[in-house]
Amino acid sequence: MFRISITDTPAQRKLVVEGKLVEPWVDELRTAWRNMSRALDRRKLVIDLSSVSVISTEGEKAISELMKQGAKFSCCGVLTRHVLKRLATNCHGPLRDSVGQTGSGIQTEKSSRR
Domains in the chain and their CATH numbers? Predict the structure, then answer.
């Protein structure tokens, strides 16, 4: 299963990615980024990986490419956060802007599961 949903607010357009970020879906993420980054009208574009269950090597390459192009990411979960931090460090050294608003550059979402 793979799905990309779009959530628009006056300040932000969010691409919510769900499922497995593996071939052949990796190209769908690239295409969605390219198409949705047009006509933002001063909004930020964020790729939300909170509902991604698997990221393949090809998926990591795509995320890295998108980071280099200026993509911003949000996530939750230890593994996804670790992958994004590692990719951000490899792309730009200490990355502050491509993955959210914390000091590491990763915007994380708190889980209320207990």
Answer: 2-108 (3.30.750.24)
Please report how many Cα atoms fall inside a 13 Å half-sphere around the Cα of residue 107, on the Cβ side.
Answer: 15
Q: Which of 63, 77, 71 is nearest to 97 (CA)?
A: 71
Give residue-wise pLDDT tens across range 48-69: 999 999 999 999 999 999 998 8
Distance, in Å, from the CA atom of 59 to the CA atom of 21, rounded to the nearest integer, reads 5
d(CA 24, CA 62): 12
Amino acid at 76: C
pTM (two decimals) = 0.78
pLDDT of 41 above 70: yes
Residue 15 φ then ψ, to 5°: -95, 110
Q: Residue 33 in contact with residue 64, Cβ under 8 Å?
A: no
Report the percent of the chain where pLDDT is more than 90.
59
